[in-house]
Amino acid sequence: MERHILVVLPHPDDEAFGISGTLAKYLNEGAQVTYACLTLGEMGRNMGIPPFANRVTLPSIRMKELEESCRAIGIQDLRMLGFHDKTLEFEDQDVLDGQIESLLKELNPTLVMTFYPGYSVHPDHDACGAAVIRAIGRLPEGQRPPVHCMAFTKDHEHFIGSPDIINDVKSFIGQKMASIQAHRSQFQAAELLGSHKISDKEILQRFGTERLWTYPQL
Amino acid sequence: MQLIDKTELQPMIDRLINQDLYIHLEMTTGAYAAHLDSSKHPAATFITNAVIRFTHGSISGTGPYRVGLKMKQGWVYSEGLTHFDETDTTRLILAGHDGQGKLVVALQLSPEPF
């Protein structure tokens, strides 16, 4: 059983599709979860359909959506670290790594979850994962928690192989769908808005499995 | 203008930190975007000769490139950059050109107004 899981992701909603079911599963087994969300996704282009957010209101709307998503999953501890969306790759690395390092020292997690650096499409995803790996690398050998990563670039399996962790989260599909739907400014797929109801079977097929890679050589 | 060479460009960015600079930042789809393809949404925006100062800046990506400049309060960000003026020793002149050679994005910094 995991005692304490530290999740580090750059944008509100990054947790929803990839790991919300896995987190609900760990939480159900008694784990503590801290989710450090690096930005508020304030540069996102989706503003709802029809738009109910704008550039000024988007950060506070996404903050509330993130809080709702965490409640849906059952996450006990949400930290919003206040970096600016789209800038992580340009951020002063000492500042970025330092914040993650202090979380690692404070929480002493048994598991860390983030994006696989280099295989996660959005520059913020890659920069977030890279910062986590650097920060963990600065911990003394023997005190480095394992890191489970999401990856989804085209052909990623060609480089990093098949996922070594395949979680069946069908029992936690309620939490997962509530997490996805909490981010209502961002996810506008008709079926998720409820205008075209998709069958329970299709939901389980599409969202019932989560795939993760253990980061090598830490 | 030459294709961006990251290792050559980074010192040009570093040279400009912590000083007042005039910025020209622009992005455009071209005025004919919707005329040529009705599915396209024409948009353009620029700001010229506003004054900024940044403390930290870098170029990123594998081309087209991204540049981010961290200011005391806020950021300058530009994506889609392909070309730079390698001969300019005082200013930073960056542009992003599409497959037809047309300018899509520009980021320029100078100690003197443009």
UniProtKB/TrEMBL annotation, chain A:
Q: Which SUPFAM superfamilies match?
A: LmbE-like (SSF102588)
Gene3D superfamilies on file = LmbE-like
One GO MF term on file is: hydrolase activity, acting on carbon-nitrogen (but not peptide) bonds, in linear amides
Taxonomy, superkingdom:
Bacteria
Task: List the top taxonomic levels of the source.
Answer: Bacteria, Bacillati, Bacillota, Bacilli, Bacillales
Which Pfam families does the protein's record reference? Answer: PIG-L
Q: What is this protein called?
A: Bacillithiol biosynthesis deacetylase BshB2
Automatic annotation (TrEMBL), chain B:
* Pfam families per the UniProt record, alphabetical: DUF1806
Q: Which domain of life is it from?
A: Bacteria
Q: Give the InterPro entries listed for this entry.
A: DUF1806, YojF_sf
Q: What is this protein called?
A: Uncharacterized protein DUF1806
Q: Tell me the organism.
A: Cohnella lupini
